[in-house]
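Fold Annotation — chain and its backbone
Encoding — discrete vocabulary of local shapes
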Amino acid sequence: MAKTMTEDMKTGWRFIDNDGAFRLDAPHRTSYLYFPLVNEAGMMSVVTPTLHGDCKTGQNSFLTLPVSVEDLHNTRSARNFWVRIAGYGPWSATGNSARQLAEAGEAENQDVALEAGLLWHKVIRESRAAGLRAEVTNFVPASSDQVELMQVVLTNTGDRPLTLTPTAAVPIYGRSADNLRDHRHVTSLLHRIRTVRHGVTVQPTLTFDERGHRPNTVTYAVLGAEGDGAPPRSFFPVVEDFIGEGGNLEWPAAVVQQGMTGAPAGSAVDGYEAIGALRFADVTLSPGESRAYVLILAVAADGFKQSGIEASAGINELVQRYGSAARFAEWLDRTRAHWQAKVAPLAFHTADPRFDGWLKWVTVQPFLRRLFGNSFVPYHDYGRGGRGWRDLWQDCLALLMLEPEPVHDLLFSSFAGVRMDGSNATIIGSRPGEFMADRNNIPRVWMDHGAWPYLTTRLYIDRSGDLGFLLQEQTYFKDAHINRCQAHDEAWSAEQGTLLRTRPGAIARGSVLEHLLVQHLTAFFNAGAAGNILLEGADWNDGMDMARERGESVAFSALYAGNLADLGQLVLALGRLGVTEVQLAAELLPLLDTLAEPVNYADVTARQDRLHRYFATCSHTISGDKIKVRPADLGRDLAAKADWLTAHLRQHEWITDRAGYGWFNGYYDNDGQRVERPDGPHGVRMTLTGQVFALMGGIASDTQAQAIVRSADRYLYEHRLGGYRLNTDFGGMQFNLGRCFGFAFGHKENGAMFSHMAVMYANALYRRGLVREGFRVLDGIYQHCADFATARIYPGLPEYISERGRGLYPWLTGSASWYLLTLLNEVFGVRGELGDLVLAPKLVAAQFDERGQAAVAAQFAGRQIEIVYHNPRRLEFGAYAIRRIAADGVDLPGARVDQGVRIAREVIAALGTPAALRLDIELDEG
């Protein structure tokens, strides 16, 4: 379990409060660390222990230089705060001076520590030689402003007075990330640089990127004030003037050479690289005395109008709002409270306090991905903003646990991204219901996309009881791509918009249920030669992208099969609402083949023919006609498809090797050949993905489930990586399968310990009752990530673990949502079932504290509920059962279900008016 506090201090970060704040000594001695700062207004920042990183509001509006992960140690461009110390010389509060870098190591004569919390970042650096300490705190305030705040507090730690000349220095890039290597110098000629009373502003005259030449309205600013609000004394607004001839940002002439004076407020310079270099008045600090300075890094979408020396009202307002030590402290408290409130609805108590604290950082990760998308942090340098289709639905899993109120509207608007051919828009805009086909309008279909909306919708209905959601009508997405992006609608034009219409010209609408059917039925009939669903552009593993013609995803065929079976059961529940028939688009009837014209599912050609017959009816418009189907008939049709596909997978895709190990094949390549096999020139081929959905979807029998665990432990488990590899080594490039095999084995999608699929494996194991095996997966990931000496990451989940054990691509990963969902629904057994509360814990003995308690705080039925399990004898899972459930000492009625108890929603609603509720659950032998 957890390491001791003494060991923590030696090996890495340690928590310093109960709210997730942690401390890391000597953070600058670890490479590639970065920390996210963000708000809902759209300001996105990243800071490192040396204050490298960037600050932006989007792909085309970077205030500072855009950085990828290697830039964190390569570039000299960073937030800096210089202090020229009389009798000592230049010193950087952020560690970015040539002298400090040259002295790095044990002889550097300075102490450095990092403290960080939700979502603030502080670096404490002390020069023992100079007798000066700097505390540099950064955060993005929880406000409507697109600003990052930075405070530097200088303290004399020596025994004699120190005379200091402070100079803030933040280079202002001020344009699109595209301009890094596309007219970098030319776009600097667009800069209109002005000094105002409190800082430097830059407003380019126009944009010069992929959008074309357009007037620019965005202004970038670096503003500053002393702790009492006093403005800087002068400014160095141009990089080449600040660094001087032969100088650089780590040894700038304006700091190194004595006597250099900057420009006054009211100066104007055009056409140069800019920097927010702010010279403050000299100050003498007595021993123990401190002085604070506040910087405001701001982006204004509509610009700041200038009026001589005085700044516009907009800049004055920012300075008044943030520009003093008192206002900085006030906004820091507000921002801390804001993020604590965000994570508060879901909190865990186990035997390991460090694990509980670590989970706070996992809990904040879904918010980070919603705000950053899959872009704008150093490792995620392949994105240009926005979220993908899969990200949207999986992030909603966490929102259902943390912020359930807006999820109904978000889910409903998102179904408008589904095309009538079963594919979907793949990029989600910043506004609800805003979609596009893909970056640069690239037509591509990920065959798994149709499966995720159902999982999220089912979770929503189970937690809310809102069966009527299935009957709400939504529009369909329409563009030129048809037949799952295999053809082009020549009759469509952009002027028609992105809404599917009926032939009479009305906007086509269908129920949410109809949208789910479209996604699953088209996938089912889109069969490959082996009878599984075609891989198309790729599935969850984006790297499986070179088998578009004949590749098949057996793994996600299993997920679709499980969804079809479950959806078939869900439509029967509509009877609770008195629904005797549902209305569906008439075009769908051929795909509900058992109701009219049955198809032999084993005949791949027949399945494909039926699908293309359907495509022909909805390629440009649809009729607008509806058919009425009884839920029982619809349920039987879906069950028939699920049963056939399940039997097919069990019979044809199960592999065994000579040693008796067995597992499911996950893929077929573009030659139509099975990918996974028990032997070959490079040994066993096995994927974790192929096992996860066979387990989760109920495809694997109980015997097969046990065999999968044994095989995964034999061929995929790697203790030094914290868990299970995504695949075995396939032995070099697989040009008939996907680009991911061009990656070095053990990295990213090619054989890494990929957190997302590993966590889903744990989820699947818990669902199948393999509790100890599931716990081993979750605990292994945590233990590895919490071992800073190996993982080298801050608290939280990375996307994957490298071959050397380092956590890579931290912060933005869908695995966070699945980790939380698995803990809540499976481990603590707190889940919904068509609106009722089901309690079925699967906690192992080691998870109960010394009192035999384990607890979770969660939202359900519109109220906050603390659920406390009492297992005083610390019985192991399988040896205990729920004996009593009490609310404030009053027993609650419940019906036995499997290994748990189901409590009707009405019972919870009747428990008085307080928003918070505590349930005590006694566990004993059973």
Observations:
- The chain has a mean pLDDT of 93.
